[in-house]
Write a structure and sequence with these properties.
This protein has 17 helices and 8 strands. Helix 4 packs parallel to helix 7, helix 12 packs parallel to helix 14 and helix 14 runs parallel beside helix 16. The longest helix is centred in the N-terminal third of the chain and has 33 residues. The N terminus and C terminus are likely disordered.
Length: 435
């Protein structure tokens, strides 16, 4: 039987996700508003009463009334702008990208500042009407009010500048690219999540531990899984990595131990965090899929925006060209075995939808072949074979799409592994570079 495990890494994962919610910042500013009102009462004995007339603290009530009425309107208006930006990103890019916009720090800070200022002014007015403050306390309240007004002005200026790009296509692409790049680089540094690589042949008589929920694996606590394996004196082979869809009959892991008790199985299941949707943080393939979705929507007849698709291709190359995995990654969890991300899966996620939806557009196909050539030249050798296969698959789609013979000849020159040789390929590359 396994002793109870405190999953620190999984707690950190959920803590990071929780801190990205807007209500956390709103609660923080509300606590500061309450603390300011309380401090104004506590610090009043240390402030000379004669300062109140000199500072004009008697006008603090009017200032708080103005602040309360204006901040409520500004908060409502700003929230409507944010919701409109979310809707625009969902309709022009992809609904999967709205989660990144909702976690935008500037938007959350601005909304929290406005709502916190409203709560501060409301509490201040309640204190004044209830005669909680004497003359010295009114001075403290006046100083806090001036500070809150300054914070509101700074937030408004920052918010106006932020709205110039917030929710636009370029801004959405930047956010998705950054999320995909961060997750991909973390996985490149730890291709097996700190565990052993999965062997080609698994041992016989393995015990499968199935999921009790249906959804996507969002996080895997490999350290807790290693502790389970060590206490069981067994080896655990992970069958569902972050991003995998699991159901009641899907195995999460396979264990060499044949006598697992129900509590041991439950502790193993607890190392997996399963939710309704895929997330960017621990799932590098999801970021590539979302970028590809944006390109596919841009290539649809209703949108007809090949420029966005070409921009996405360049961003995908920038992410995948960093694929230089360590030759001997450190093994931190020797009892756990994990499969790596394969080049075929990555290229399929990133480029197959673009090759399919842009098969009849020569400019998109040329940029695709230029991307494949760049990846072949910059990424590691393990990616080379998959890049050649993806290049040929894209060329086959272009042939079936009915391109003109002259366009198809140009595309064949640029394709990897085709009849193109040095001069022809170089000329095709120069033509594409001038775009």
């Amino acid at each position: 039987m396994i002793s109870r495990i405190l999953p620190w890494q999984r707690m950190g994962f959920w803590l990071r996700r929780t801190l990205r919610k807007v209500w956390v910042r709103v609660v923080g500013f509300a606590i500061l508003a309450v603390a300011s009102a309380v401090l104004a009462r506590l610090l009043s004995p240390f402030v000379p009463a004669e300062l109140a007339p000199r500072l004009g603290a008697d006008a603090v009530g009017q200032i708080l009334v103005t602040l309360a009425s204006s901040m409520l309107a500004v908060t409502t208006f700003s929230l409507s702008i944010a919701v409109s930006a979310f809707a625009a990103a969902a309709s022009t890019a992809t609904p999967r990208a709205t989660a990144l916009l909702q976690e935008d720090h500037t938007t959350q800070n601005v909304l929290a500042t406005f709502l916190g200022a409203f709560l501060f002014s409301l509490l201040g007015l309640i204190g004044l009407r209830a005669n909680v403050y004497d003359d010295s306390g009114t001075v403290i309240l006046f100083l806090f009010t001036v500070l809150v007004v300054a914070l509101v002005i700074v937030a408004l200026i920052h918010w106006i500048g932020h709205l110039m790009s917030f929710g636009r296509m370029h801004d959405t692409l930047d956010r998705v690219e950054a999320a995909a790049r961060d997750a991909f680089e973390r996985r490149v540094e730890r291709p097996y999540l700190g565990a052993n690589p999965m062997p080609q042949t698994l041992p016989q008589r393995l015990t499968a531990v199935a999921s009790q929920h249906t959804g996507y694996v969002q996080y895997l606590d490999v350290q807790a899984l290693e502790e389970c394996a060590a206490e069981l004196d067994a080896r655990i082979y992970v069958a569902a990595l972050p991003g995998s869809f699991v159901h009641l009959a899907a195995p999460l892991v396979r264990v060499t131990a044949s006598n697992l008790d129900p509590e041991s199985e439950e502790r193993i299941r607890s190392t997996f965090s399963i939710g309704r949707d895929r997330t960017f943080e621990e799932d590098p393939r999801f970021g590539l899929i979302v970028l590809s979705e944006i390109a596919s929507r841009a290539l649809s007849p209703a949108v007809n925006d090949p420029g966005t698709a070409i921009s996405v291709i360049g961003r995908l190359v920038a992410i995948l060209s960093r694929w230089q995995p360590a030759e001997d990654p450190e093994v931190l969890y020797p009892h756990v075995f994990v499969e790596p991300i394969t080049p075929e899966d990555v290229l399929e996620d990133a480029f197959r939808p673009i090759a399919r939806d842009g098969a009849g557009l020569i400019e998109v196909q040329l940029r695709l072949q230029a991307a494949f050539r760049a990846l072949r030249d910059t990424a590691n050798s393990n990616l080379a074979d998959a890049v050649v296969a993806a290049s040929r698959a894209a060329l086959d789609r272009a042939r079936a799409a009915g391109l003109r013979s002259s366009e198809l000849a140009t595309l064949e020159e640029a394709a990897i592994g085709e009849a193109a040789t040095g001069v022809a390929a170089a000329s095709a590359g120069h033509r594409e570079a001038r775009r």
